[in-house]
Write a structure and sequence with these properties.
The structure is a single chain. This protein is an alpha/beta fold and 344 residues long. The chain has a domain at 1-65 and 283-313. The chain contains 13 helices and 12 strands. The strands form 4 sheets. It has a 5-stranded parallel β-sheet with strand order 6-3-2-1-12. It has a 3-stranded parallel β-sheet with strand order 7-9-11. The radius of gyration is 19 Å and the shape is globular.
Length: 344
């Protein structure tokens, strides 16, 4: 079981574990590791790395990856190339039944393949809407649709496929990234629409997937100035406690987006960012650089939080759920309809 003191999800800087990373893995504040393309060479190599990570840690940890499909796919060689989610939206527009069928199949195939490497979950599905504002490298074809009403059924179907493979899902980027053009990796995006506008144009997929049981939500490093003029959603008690917890009745795990992003770094040094995130987030993501990970750990004293522990442990993969035959059937279905072609 992941301990009640666990808080941080850290990044590993390469394909080997450094002495500092070994120390952090064994620290009671460590809840897990997020993997990136920099960690990946082949399915066999990543399996060995994950085995080493788990064996090095003194307690159970989560292993996660951003493997949502399209241009956000960290493991490529040896994996099925998952199309961008917008492709599913195009299919859904023509034939909703096929759109949902293929969404579920893709969710299963994605989850099955990373589960074979002993990854607990992918940070997906994305619930942002594509708009003329966000039609860029930030959102664009990562979104299921330009129609807010079509995102939930497609995302739910995708998530159901992940669940069939024993994997949790993470809805992102709450309360919606679709109406800003700036990239929070590079700057702090600011949205000046009011809550009524967000409730109509961004929040519906989050509301619906929370109702459908999504166990984790990742908030955006975006300042929604008319709702909370002081803090972006990822640091905002208004957004994460008053709205997400109380208004939307979300009782699952809140996972911060990476605290090294520019949208977060606008709010002080790493210790200050961690302090802001701990007010409402259950898991805090710090992927790099090593000096920032070190500062994050130095800023916190381990303290037990049984509720946080329960939320975090709910994200562990169900290892009994995988079916090789179901994977084969769903992959063949996707190939037959040219949704996917072959393994990279």
């Amino acid at each position: 079981m992941i301990p009640s003191t666990a808080l941080f999800v850290i990044g590993i800087q390469g394909t080997m574990i450094s002495s500092d990373e070994k120390y952090w893995l064994q620290h009671p504040l460590t809840a897990g590791v997020i993997l990136f393309a920099r960690n990946y060479e082949s399915p066999e190599q990543i399996q060995l790395l994950i085995q080493t990570l788990r064996n090095t840690a003194k307690h159970d940890i989560l292993i996660m990856v951003d493997q949502e499909g399209g241009r956000v796919q960290r493991f490529i060689k040896g994996f099925t190339k998952i199309p961008p989610m917008a492709d599913l939206g195009v299919i859904y527009d023509k034939n909703p039944e096929n759109g949902l069928l293929f969404s579920t199949a893709l969710g299963y195939v994605l989850a099955y393949e990373i589960a074979q490497c002993d990854v607990d979950f992918s940070i997906a599905p994305m619930l942002d809407v594509e708009t003329s504002v966000s039609n860029s490298n930030v959102i664009g074809d990562r979104a299921f649709s330009k129609d807010i009403g079509k995102i939930f059924p497609l995302a739910k179907a995708f998530y159901q496929g992940m669940r069939e493979a024993g994997m949790s899902g993470v809805g992102k980027h709450f309360p919606g990234h679709g109406h800003v053009s700036a990239d929070s990796h590079e700057s702090l995006p600011i949205y000046d629409g009011d809550f009524a506008s967000l409730e109509e144009n961004d929040l519906p997929p989050f509301k619906d997937l929370i109702h459908a049981g999504i166990p984790a939500i990742m908030p955006a490093h975006i300042l929604y100035s008319q709702v909370d003029p002081d803090f972006p959603a990822g640091f905002s008690t208004i957004w994460l406690n008053e709205i997400l917890r109380k208004k939307l009745n979300f009782s699952g795990c809140i996972i911060s987006d990476d605290l090294n992003m520019a949208g977060a770094s606008a709010y002080g040094n790493m210790a200050k960012r961690v302090a802001l995130a701990t007010r409402n987030c259950d898991l805090i993501l710090v992927s790099h650089p090593p000096e920032d990970i070190k500062k994050a750990f130095e800023s916190q004293i381990p303290w037990e939080n049984p509720l946080r522990q329960k939320r975090i442990n709910a994200l562990r993969r169900n290892k009994e759920a995988l079916s090789a035959q179901l994977y084969k059937d769903k992959l063949n279905l996707l190939k037959k309809h040219a949704i996917v072609t072959s393994i990279s």
